[in-house]
Each structure stands twice: as C-alpha cells, then as structure tokens.
Amino acid sequence: MNNDVNKEQFMESAGKMAKELAQFTSNMNFDEETMLDILNDSLMPVEQFFANYNCAIMEIETKFKVLNEQFSLKYDGNPIESIHSRVKDYDSIMRKMIRKKIPRTLDAIEENINDIAGVRVICSFVDDIYRLADCLLQQDDIILIRTKDYIKNPKPTGYRSLHLLVAVPIFLENEKKLVKVEVQLRTIAMDFWASLEHKIRYKKNISKEMLDKLSHELTDCANISASLDSRMQNVRNLLLSETQSKSNDRREM
Ligand code: 0O2
Fold first, then answer.
1. What distance separates the 2 farthest-apart alpha carbons in the chain?
2. Atom of ligand 1 nearest to the CA of 158
3. Residue 125 lies in domain
C-alpha cells in the first residue's frame, strides 16, 4: 500500500485547515507571536486527529499483509491482489458533516463519521473475502462495530462489497486509543465495476434521462460481473478438488 499517498492527503487536509484558520486570525488584531501560538495550539489537535487515523490504517494494513503472507504459504497463492487506503479528505468530511448535521468539533466528527480511515482490500475470489474477514475479526485486539454485507445483499445500484466497521487500538506516547476504520473487501470484478460507476456518478453535465439509462446499464453490468465472479470461484473450486484428490491418491499409494 501507498503510505506516501496517505501522507499527501493528510498534508493537503491539514493545509486547508491552516488556511481557514489563518484567514480567520488575520481578521483579528494579534501580534505575530500571539498569532503563531494560536495557530500552533489550534492545529496540534487537528494534526493529532488525522495522525491517529493514519496510524490505525497502518495497523490494519499490516494485519492484512501478514494474513496474505500466511495464506500464500498454506494455500499456494496470494488471496490479496492489492490494498488501497486513504484518510478521508477535509472537503469530504465537511460535506458529510453538513449533510448529517454534525456539530463542527473533532469529538463530534470522530463520533459520527465512520469512514475517516478507509482500507480497501481487493481479493481474487469471493471465498477469500470471507476467509480474510473471519481471520481479521478473530484477532483479539479488533472490535467489530458493524458489518454491511453488500455481497449477499447488493445495493439497488448493483454495488457489491463486504464492509466491516472495526475499531483498532493504536499505541501513542502516553495512551492507547481505539480508532475506527472502515474496511471494504471486494473482488477485482467488484472493484472494476465500483470504480467506473463512481466516476460516472460524479460526472457533471449528464442529463437526468441519460443518468437513468446509464444506471440501468450499470446495474446490468454489476449482475454480469457477479456471475463472472461466481464462475471464477467454481473454476477455483474444481482446481482445488482436483489437487486435493491427487494428493490423497499419492498418500494412499
Ligand atoms: P468514498 O469516496 O468511497 O470514500 P455510514 O455513514 O458509513 O454509516 P453510508 O455512507 O451509507 O453510512 O455507508 P455505506 O453506503 O455502507 O458505504 C459508503 C461507501 O461504500 C462509499 O463511500 C463507497 O465507497 C461505497 N459505496 C456504497 N454504495 C456505493 C455505490 O452504489 N457505488 C459505488 N461505486 N460505491 C458505493 P463514499 O462516502 O461514497 O466515498
């Protein structure tokens, strides 16, 4: 996973907040030193706030990387194709705060916005998703807050993924803190669909009629893609049972 991207996103968000604060304080009549103190005092908790989510992402990513390594030894193949993580950017947090009428405080944001830290795990097969999810949830430092299984119950759009909202402890200088992370597990096919659908949904200048037409088409594509996943899973199962019966034969000889 790309931690540079996380850092970049974090710096961008912190920068935006610093600008807002600078604008606010520039309207007041403070001397330079007082202004610097105010800026530092105000920014510190915000920086710590985002840093906590970055640390939680690192913890979860490491857990998946360890599981990937373990599985590859046991099953002769890596279940994880890739991991993509992000800390939600400042604008998206603000938009969600306004939409959900959340007070503009760090505590309220932490309490009410669940997907500030997001880890997306892309797997080869549907089975791997559930196996990895089980292994993660068995770990005694992970607290499961909520599961949304959009694979068993796809969204009306056709969206499929397994969402786990978990809390993971991070160990800071003088405290242990539980931080929420939204984990999305999906196959390559689910991810391909979701990425394209996301792009189209946020495209500007598309008429309502065209959007409706495209939505139908996209839901259809999601179903085709789900049936592809299920056929690929069958291929894998056949392969596994063939390998299994050969190794049984060898043992009997
Ligand atoms: P992004 O850019 O992916 O971060 P919550 O507020 O978490 O309690 P919410 O927002 O209803 O409840 O969560 P939901 O619907 O379980 O999951 C939201 C996330 O799932 C979205 O994040 C997407 O990543 C993904 N998602 C859900 N539905 C769809 C869909 O129909 N199409 C696509 N492409 N993705 C979907 P965000 O917030 O949109 O942003």
1. 90
2. 31
3. 3-252
